[in-house]
Hints:
Elements: H1 3-17, H2 19-62, H3 69-75, E1 77-80, H4 94-97, E2 100-103, H5 115-118, H6 130-146, H7 151-156, H8 158-164, H9 169-199, H10 206-233, H11 237-266, H12 272-286, H13 295-308, H14 320-356, H15 362-374, H16 378-406, H17 409-413, H18 419-422, H19 428-431, H20 443-477
Antiparallel strand pairs: 1-2
Helix pairs in contact: 1-9, 2-6, 2-9, 3-16, 6-9, 6-10, 6-11, 9-10, 9-20, 10-11, 10-15, 10-20, 11-14, 12-14, 14-16, 15-20
Amino acid sequence: MSAIGLIARDELRLMRRNRVALIAFALLVVLTLVAAVTSWTNQRAIAAQRAQFQETAEQAFDAQPDRHPHRVVHYGHFIYRPLGPLAAFDPGVDAFTGNSMFLEGHRQNTANFGDVRQSSLLIRFGQLTPAFVLQVLAPLLLIFLGYGAVARERERGTLRQLLAQGVSGRRLFAGKALALGLIAIFVGLPAMIGFALIARQPGALAGPTTVIALGYAAWLLFWALVTILVSALVKRSRDALLTLLAIWTVGVILIPRVAPDVAGQARPLVTRLETDIAIQRDLRQLGDSHNANDPFFAAFKQKVLDQYGVTRVEDLPVNYKGLLAIEGEKLTSGLFDRYANASFATQAEQSAIMHGFAVLSPAIGLRRLSMAAAGTDLTGHRRFLDQAEAYRFDIVQRLNRLQAEAVSYADDTAKDAGADQRKRIADRHWDKIPEFASTPASGGQLVRAALPGLIVVAAWLLATMAACLLAAGRLQRNPR
């Protein structure tokens, strides 16, 4: 057996004799399996619940009686964000952004009922998922198992003996890293088994699944090398442990928690109240459809009359109030989209600032990779909001067209005792409104979104490898 193999075997033998390490390893394996099972069952339960709520909302919408189409516009409709299969591995921002939306005319609502707003504050510190275990707890176990790998040899005086017997610093490093790398494989294996079962669900894509597996493999290897590196740079095992715990605390806990706050302070997001006030101000500037002398709508009225070759709205073959509703919804929706895009742009700037902290913490790059590949990042949430807004605009305009075509202008403006009944149309029209169907991102889109995070983790891994080579040479020259 080669010197590297002998060193790795000896290191594994020492780890096996450490009862505390074995107990910690067993507990992490159990915790990982519990996290995989609970996260998977929770995801399935949430998906089933949202599907049930969506079906109930569709039935309630279709069950409306004969009504005026504009009443249906204000009756509104609920839609729910479906969860992708990989959300069981990493739910991402789903707990923070909300999962349902109320759609109505003349208004663009946001998603509601995020789990964070309805649950204990403890959820803000991370949900028990396979991703959380691998991101936070697995590196901690590798630290406790390998912090004394090289420092212990220096303390016992065996390091100089190994080097004197012809074992180079690089071979020593390679043997220690091989041993801890094998442990890292066993540490990540339960989570990867759970991930493989999650990835077998319908809708899971091979590309994002592969990227996630590569990212977490590089993450665990990175921590194995960092642990050996620090153990080689300090003189005592105790100092190695304290240094590694400090690195883990800052890199895995502190920086990922502070980065969003820094981004929020650097690029403040306009509040919903401020946005509503600004929208109402801009709506007044657009024009008042109820004012006959309003320049914009007076010009619109004349354009419609000229189009149909008549001089009065009463002579139009369609209901002018319905045409007015169609035009008004175009204007308001364009305004809503402008403010929504401005909000998304600010959020994108915040994300860019937060991702910039990846130069200090590879955990930020890993989380970006994990959420992007799972489709549970901010981009995935925006995709749902964009589709929801497109659906809202479509159903509102369908109803406005029904008002223009199925309700006469004379009945719509009448005020006699039977006018309210004549304004209503048959309830069969509500069945023709299409149901909401969210279109998930393609595998290529998810992979492209995850690549920057994968590059960050790979860059940290390569930098650590280079540092290990330098430290191995230093160890050869100065074993003390």
